[in-house]
């Protein structure tokens, strides 16, 4: 059985108390949640439930909104892909921030149009990164991230963002394949040379054999045949046949 949606092992007790009571709707707790988001960015922790609660407070109290906190929440949600957290966060943002978003995502390889405000532009650009991740275009993710200085500003507050993304990409890859070409994986991880070998060998525990990278067997990438057996007794068929000849009342 999976973990509950609202579970976060690193959540402080005072945040847990707020989330479990009516204070989660108290505007005075906004600063507490904002500080908690900053702590998540610094400590490499993540609490989607608390972040969504803050975005809900912003909905009720637009005058308390902080653009920097919103972008930090979105960036943190990217670090846990392929979970739907990024989309959940988008659903709580104001419509005028998202209005140009649908047009920008019709072509996933094009840059989004600049919105009416810096926050709108930031959201659209982060949505492009999310689209690349969801489509497993990891090389495009890195080229987009490195191709615009604004991205560097958006992810600056999230400590070790690139390392977190490499770990997530590697986790997804390990669920899908048992071997992959070295050149392909270098593009997916945006690493090469000794840095690539260290990450693959020491962090992931994979083996490099010439131009191929071997991923150890796990329950996700193991090919298993499924045998379906049905236990139908003969008397069950007789009841079906008998009903076919019964006269309607």
From TrEMBL:
InterPro entries found in the cross-reference section: ARM-type_fold (IPR016024), CSN8_PSD8_EIF3K (IPR033464), eIF3k (IPR009374), PCI_dom (IPR000717), Transl_init_fac_sub12_N_euk (IPR016020), WH-like_DNA-bd_sf (IPR036388), WH_DNA-bd_sf (IPR036390)
Single annotated GO MF: ribosome binding
SUPFAM superfamilies, per database record: ARM repeat, Winged helix' DNA-binding domain
GO aspect biological process, one term: formation of cytoplasmic translation initiation complex
Keyword Transport attributed: no
Coiled coil: none
PROSITE patterns documented for this protein: PCI
Function statement: Component of the eukaryotic translation initiation factor 3 (eIF-3) complex, which is involved in protein synthesis of a specialized repertoire of mRNAs and, together with other initiation factors, stimulates binding of mRNA and methionyl-tRNAi to the 40S ribosome. The eIF-3 complex specifically targets and initiates translation of a subset of mRNAs involved in cell proliferation.
Subunit structure: Component of the eukaryotic translation initiation factor 3 (eIF-3) complex.
UniProt-listed PANTHER family: EUKARYOTIC TRANSLATION INITIATION FACTOR 3 SUBUNIT 11, EUKARYOTIC TRANSLATION INITIATION FACTOR 3 SUBUNIT K
Protein name per UniProt: Eukaryotic translation initiation factor 3 subunit K
Organism encoding this protein: Viridothelium virens
